[in-house]
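Hello again,

I reread your note about wanting to compare the complex against the isolated chains. To keep things tidy I'm splitting this into two emails, and this first one only covers the full assembly. Below are the input lines as submitted, including protein chains and any nucleic acid or small-molecule components. They are followed by the predicted structure of everything together. The single-chain runs will come separately.
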Amino acid sequence: MRLSQYFLPILKETPAEAQIVSHRYMLRAGLVRQASAGIYSWLPLGFRVLKNIEAIVRDEQNRAGAQELLMPTIQPAELWRESGRYDDYGKEMLRITDRHDRDMLFGPTNEELITDISRTSIRSYRQLPKMLYHIQWKFRDEVRPRFGVMRGREFLMKDTYSFDVDFAGAKRSYNKMFVAYLRTFARLGLKAIPMVAESGPIGGDMSHEFIVFAKTGESEVFCHRDLLEIAVPGDDVNYEGDLQPIVDRWTAPYATTGDKHDPEKGKALGDALVSARGIEVGHIFYFGSKYSKPMKATVVGPDGEDVAIEMGSYGIGVSRLVGAVIEASHDDAGIIWPDAVAPFAVGLINLKVDDAACTQVCDDVYGRLRAKGIAVLYDDRDDRAGAKFATMDLIGLPWQLVIGPRGIKAGQVEIKRRATGERQDLTLDAALAQIAG
RNA sequence: CGGAGCGUGGCGCAGCCUGGUAGCGCACUAGACUGGGGGUCUAGGGGUCGUGGGUUCAAAUCCCGCCGCUCCGACCA
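Full-complex prediction:
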């Protein structure tokens, strides 16, 4: 993409409303624009990041055996009356009335819908287990939206729901998602630690929040430092095998969010205790028959008796992750995108567009990179070198390829790794080889 | 939902206290000079001062209502 033609509204000054670093950079780098409190438009650069994150989330869900579907944003109130949540949910739920005066709502979550789907289509235990997910916009009418996309009212979320005939099956589903989440966040370049979370109405230990450390995190968290060093399951992980040892390994060390912290246990860890602020990027939990019972989602079991389906739900805040990644990866000059989510892999800087030879080389390099399938943002604008460097640093592309008349004379180009700031003068071929990695 | 604050060209702000010609920086347009870390000069365009009412000869400025947005707290992926 040629920057001269790209829609990238960069802000030199920080908008007054942005308090935390990810929000500031998302506005300044032209990723999003606020439409209303807690509601954002995604501009081209931000949209690319959002889609990259979504693709990784999707890939890992599929790998774990979950199947994608898509449920609507607008739901009938009727289902929520069945589960009893229509009255319980309160003002966070945006209620709507259609032209026929029917009560509708903008979904804050999808348990009711998915339970309705399962009860009409899954009749026998032989059809289980199943894991279904969707990636969809949700709306929660937060009293006080803040921190940009980190706590918006409208947000993109991946929700998986598992269906099993008994607890042992539900546990296997839970473990699959546990492992999938470890892998997903690692691929996004994040170190996310599973922590014991509020277990909800069912109790037990099958509820974990996945937390990313960040100075601006919204809640205080505590964990054993060993958790920061455990290797994430690799591509070869077998989801059909026994995942319990992996889960045990990750859940053995102490790790909990602030509200469940036990100071005694913390003290016992001594130097090994890590206390930090964290951002919740995922939450998995088992809820048994909480919805299947009232909504009569049952299957015929092996013994011919009806049993309520055992369910769990597993969320990842996709849009929130854009903010979380920035919180975890930035410096004073701007964003530092991990390779896996970067909107473009390379920023190509033409230092002197009115130098015919220089532009010739840059155009050629632009073509070669694209031919290799490498996403490149080509700064072909007639602007000062300094301004171009500052823009590239702000938008945080992993590689900068800098080409100017001076280097061309010496047979060299400069590549800069955004994350380290390291710069190398190389021949063009060597630079391209390095970028292609 | 409790407490606090802010709405003035696209963005960041001053002006308001003490009523009297709407201003600055950035961005934008044109030209010239410049050219390896957010350049300089010249000349321009763009604002019914959130909105409705009130006071007054006169309201961005004083008073009241409403709307929007932000911050602290409680709450939440």
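For quick reference: The radius of gyration of chain A is 24 Å.

B.
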